[in-house]
Amino acid sequence: MKNLMLLFVVDGDGTLNELINGIMKFDNKPKISFIPLGTVNDFARTIKMSTKRTFLSKNINESEIVESDIGSFNDIYFNYVAAFGAFTPVAYVTGQKLKKKFGKFAYFLVAFKYLNKIKTYDLEVETDDDKFKGEFIYGSVSNSKSIGGFEWFKRKGVKIDDGKFEVLLIKKPKRIIDWINTAFLLLVKKHKKKYFYYTQTREIKFKSKQSLNWTLDGEYGGRNKETKIKTNNKAINFVIPL
User: Fold this and answer.
1) Of these residues, 124, 126, 203, 219, which one is catalytic?
2) 2: alpha, beta or left, given left = phi > 0 and alpha = psi -120 to 50?
3) Which of 154, 175, 229, 232 has the maximal Cβ count within 10 Å?
């Protein structure tokens, strides 16, 4: 890796995740540029990367360097999101044929199967500034404006090189109106304390009695009862064509 200056990735967020897990082991890391050919391309949307296949090759000589934080998830890495809970399995069980045929709508088709399978998780959570217990149906630790093709945070509130991740936990809805309000507030990017826990942190720990199924950058990330996530500030440089 010492003499390798630039790596190209031609695929989606999952392939980018595999590459990052490989190069994070080295002290001298090459820069990365990529042609995003996935279904939702969350990270490309965050850094305003064109999804046109010809754009990169035509404009690679006119580019800028974007520094990005990388997450440590126990003993592996993720690029932009680690998540568990409601609907997170949808990303990795949705077949490639369905994705190609229906695009983002494919995720909605599969999501309906999980409506009656939403679980509640009793968690102990510790961040840089807080320690608490609670019941939650979803959690994400992210470094992206977009998750699953949708923007859950206001763009000005997310910086991919600030050494902090955005943490969003959805509290267990108790009534039907709570479900409705939770969905509406997500759409308008408002995280009221009654329905959500939101913070920014450099490190976070999760403990639960039952194993949590995690997704990392849209791919299956394993099952854990204890998880430690921390940021690696400005660990990777991305080359973005102008």
Assistant:
1) 219
2) alpha
3) 229
Q: Is 219 a catalytic residue?
A: yes
Instruction: Let me know whether 132 and 228 are in one domain.
Output: yes
The predicted model scores a pTM of 0.84
Assigned domain for 205 exists: yes
Residue 126: give its domain's CATH number: 2.60.200.40
Q: How many Å apart are CA 55 and CA 35, to the nearest integer? A: 8
Specify if 202 maps to a domain: yes
Structure tokens at 47: 């850094």
Q: Letter for the amino acid at 155?
A: R
DSSP codes, 111-122: HGGGGGG---EE
Give the domain extent around 183.
Answer: 76-233
Q: In whole angstroms, what is the distance from residue 169 CA to residue 182 CA?
A: 11
Phi-psi group of 58: left, alpha or beta (phi > 0 → left; psi -120 to 50 → alpha; rest → beta) = alpha
In tens, the pLDDT along 24-69 reads: 998 889 999 887 877 677 888 888 776 665 555 555 667 789 999 9
The pairing of beta strand 63-73 with beta strand 76-78: antiparallel
Asked if residue 1 is part of any domain, the answer here is: no
